[in-house]
Amino acid sequence: MIIAMEPGAEREHVEAVIKRLQQEGFQVHISQGVERTVIGAIGDRTRLKADMVAAMPGVEKVVPILQPYKMAARDFKPEGTKVEVAPGVTIGEGEDIHIIAGPCAVESRQQLLETAVAVKEGGASLLRGGAYKPRTSPYSFQGLASKGLEYLAEAKALTGLPVVTEVVDASLAQEVAQVADVLQIGSRNMHNFALLKAVGRAGKPVLLKRGLAATIEEWLLAAEYILVEGNFQVILCERGIRTFENYTRNTLDLSAVAAVKHLSHLPVMVDPSHATGRRLLVPPMAKAAIAAGADGLMVEVHPNPQEALSDGPQSLTPEEFYKLVKELKPFLEAVGRRLGRLRDEAEVRSSLSRS
Ligand code: PEP
Ligand code: MN
Fold first, then answer.
1. At what angle do helices 282-292 and 318-334 cross, to 10 degrees?
2. Lower CB density within 10 Å: C or N end of the chain?
3. CB 197 within 8 A of CB 216
4. Is the CB of residue 194 less than 8 Å from the CB of residue 170?
5. Can you tell me the distance from the alpha carbon of 261 to that of 129, in angstroms, rounded to the nearest whole number?
């Protein structure tokens, strides 16, 4: 249930409600707005009925959450979640749109560093690259594993770009979390509940890709697994679903973006690369994603796509990436948003000294 306290409710009244809920075994999440405090509580409503809470001093109203997912529901945090990854890189509702760009897989030190510099130049504020790769075939390139993580750390040191990389197994969550700023859960693993719990406890933001055959409700329930562990830093990523169409690799479900923005408070990004599987279709779908309300994009970029060890056909060259970012501008303006950018340490220091 959601407990909305009266505007300006006294602190002791807020605390009494929280205490009562906790005594009855409820998991409590507090959302402190400018005017009022909203308390989200998950637990057994036969132990503590909504009417009992509604009767407590300072409580304005109590609303049950009817959806099967609770903490992921929009009612739980009506103002929307913002995930702060690095200075200047806050993903969520607001003006800024962020772009995660980089190769499908980390293939070599040279390939990664070159791509990292190029995507930063082009306007990306996060670097992607798989070190552990979930491949459909066991004969395909599986990634450089811990060596790949080392190169990602080096690319981050070189460019300052925060790193997004995939965790394919719960046993790797801690190792990947030492390098990654955002832990990616891939489409194939969206239903891996042990993994969802592990990243829920890893203390880093999570990018949760939609399962290739998952409904919106299943996707939000997967997010719920992470939230239940106490990690509210969750970003959803629509990457296309499997349909009968086979010209495209998947079918980009942009209606899911608008639907999830309505149903949930979590930020939503779109990956037009895996959604289409074709370089040609990445720019138009990236623009459409912005128009549909996405909070960011994930785009695969490779310095030499024809040589890529994975996903070459959908990877943009750095030049194509620059062109796309330029072309996004009017679309961003049309929805009242702009390209967010990473702030370097000097900028952060000078803004702190001004405030
Ligand atoms: C990826 O982003 O590296 C990836 C494998 O994508 P997906 O899980 O969406 O297939
Ligand atoms: Mn890929």
1. 30
2. C
3. no
4. yes
5. 27
Amino acid identity at 133: K
Cβ atoms of residues 143 and 132 within 8 Å: yes
Select from 114, 176, 120 the least CA-distant residue to 144: 176
Question: Which H or E run includes 333?
Answer: helix 318-334
3-state secondary structure 28-65: EEEEECCCCEEEEEECCCCCCCHHHHHCCCCEEEEECC
The Cα angle at residue 166 between residues 133 and 145, in degrees rounded to 5: 50
Q: What is the pairing mode between strands 37-42 and 2-5?
A: antiparallel
Collect all residues with Cβ–Cβ distance below 8 Å to 196 and sequence separation of at least 6: 185, 208, 222, 225, 226
Torsion of the alpha carbons at 29, 33, 38 and 41, rounded to the nearest 10: -10
* CATH of 2-63 among 3.90.1150.10, 3.40.50.150, 3.30.70.1140, 3.40.50.970: 3.30.70.1140
Distance 107 CA to ligand 1 centre (A): 16
Q: State whether the beta carbon of 98 lies less than 6 angstroms from ligand 1.
A: no
The pairing of beta strand 338-339 with beta strand 96-102: parallel
Distance (angstroms) between ligand 1 centre and the Cα of 187 equals 6
State if residue 185 touches ligand 1 by the CB under 6 angstroms criterion. Answer: no
Domain ranges in the chain are 2-63, 82-346
What superfamily in CATH does domain 82-346 come from? Aldolase class I (3.20.20.70)
- 270-296 tens-digit pLDDT: 999 999 999 999 999 999 999 999 999
pLDDT beyond 70 at 120 = yes
Q: Tell me the pLDDT band of 355, cut-offs 50, 70 and 90.
A: low
Cβ–ligand 1 contact at 274 (below 6 Å):
yes
82-346 and 2-63 share a CATH fold: no
* pTM, 2 dp: 0.94
**Averaged pLDDT of the chain:** 95
Pairing of strands 182-185, 206-209: parallel
